[in-house]
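Limitations
The structure tokens in this dataset are predictions for the assembled complex, not deposited experimental models. Users should treat interface geometry with appropriate caution, especially where small molecules or nucleic acid strands are included. An illustrative entry is reproduced here so readers can see what is and is not provided.
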Amino acid sequence: MEALIQQVVAGLANGGIYASMGLALVMIYQSTHHINFAQGEMAMFSTFIAWALLQAGWPYWGAFGATVLISFAGGLAIQRIILKPVEKAPVLTNVIVFIGLLVIFNSLAGWIFDHTIKPFPSPFPKFTGAGKLISGHDLGSIAVMLVVLALLYSFLRFTPAGLAMRAAAQNPESARLVGIRVSWMLGVGWGLSAAIGAVAGMMVAPVVYLDPNMMGGILLYGFAAALLGGIDNPWGAVIGGFIVGVLENLLGAYVIGTELKLTVALVLIVTILTIKPNGLFGKAVVTRV
Amino acid sequence: MARLLEVRGLTAFYGETQALFGIDFDLEEGGITALLGANGAGKTTTLRALCGAVKMRGSVRFADQAIEGRATEDIARMGVAHVPDGRGTFSALTVEENLKLGAYTRRDRAGVAADMKRMYARFPRLKERRAQQAGTLSGGEQQMLAISRALMLRPRLLLLDEPSFGLAPLMVGEIFAILGEINREEGVSMLLVEQNASLALELAGHAYLLETGAIALSGPSAALRRDETVRKAYLGY
Ligand SMILES: Nc1ncnc2c1ncn2[C@@H]1O[C@H](COP(=O)(O)OP(=O)(O)O)[C@@H](O)[C@H]1O
Ligand SMILES: [Mg+2]
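Predicted assembly:
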């Protein structure tokens, strides 16, 4: 029983990471209908920035906050400079740009920080009560992810800028007619995605260690989370992330063993795409004409 | 009266296809001007061209400023509100959120709150449904919402694309009566696009008739109503 609880908590911790990556993907997908394949590499690069700041002697939370801000600015800049010119271009052009970004970030990280695997600190105490069964980092990571989700939710739900972002994603033509600068909203969406990815990267790095290929598998899980929840539904992606995380851990521990865990994600993606293409919480807008 | 809108030699294109062939028209401040024409004549395209939402050439002056070539959102910020073809409702957002979005560019919070109240007073049905997803409203309610949302901008010019489309006659009467009221009481100028010519000629003081992307006829509404060709082709008597 205790082992089961431990597996579930660890699953929720991973799930929070997948939920965040899924959310980052959905934020961009909603307004552009593109999957940003570079999302994982961007998160990895952000984590390297945090690592460099820590190496320079910054306190953990100072480096954390700075990394989030730098990532937001970086995401915004990428959209303004690289994506905006291809906004109206065919899907394939965008896919090529995304893959280009992926390769660039990956090689840039390898070139600047080299390919050796680096430890990355956790800001949380190593163990907490409950017979030392549950890791402090898992609990802390879940808490951080919940705070990020709550902040994002509040921003989208309760602020005028958040409302404008939702409007721009739903109906860009009408959004322009009420004076919303839609293209800038896409930029802010990229900034937010990059910032969320940065948090996910910093939370997962103490577990998987830091190297340029750290996020490859994790983005795949994030993608599975987004598909499971419904690629056009941010909160579906969050729930999807937690489901995938727990499922992965339980299957890994009791059914198929850890080697096949990534395969589970792939099988999940394919299964969802075949059975329920809109995901569990996909589009539920009622329209009457 | 001052001239609010002056359009000269307006052409518009969808890719290589030309939809407007050099249109001239004016709109007086405080008035209602109708743009009539059969389906496919280019009425919607004209409104889109004014808002910079379609590739266009020619000159468009609004309140003595050239607005051709400007971004749609900048034209909206100058005080041109557009109730588009198909109403353009944010269907997954609530009625209240739709209204808030209409006032997105305004910074006078108190004024926005007061205007929201006035919209609800004018359209009590919207008030009842304020927390409902806009997509669940009936066609008439959605049209009311689209008009209210446009008015939340406090526009100087309101562009209306077939507000009668798809609505029951009773609802059409109600909406046109309210449009007249808004024009008289608040002095909002309107460019009214309609296929339903008799309805539009009653509300508007001046009208232009569009045929395959060019102005075929124009004049005061009373004159157009008496015109032989208009009566036969568009009024049906
Ligand atoms: N999105 C579009 N792409 C290509 N052609 C279009 C498009 N919209 C309208 N058209 C063409 O432009 C002409 C004018 O259309 P429109 O302005 O919608 O007419 P109206 O509003 O008077 O019914 C028509 O011939 C129509 O087929
Ligand atoms: Mg039309």
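Some entries come with short summary sentences. For this one: The first helix of chain A runs from residue 2 to 32.
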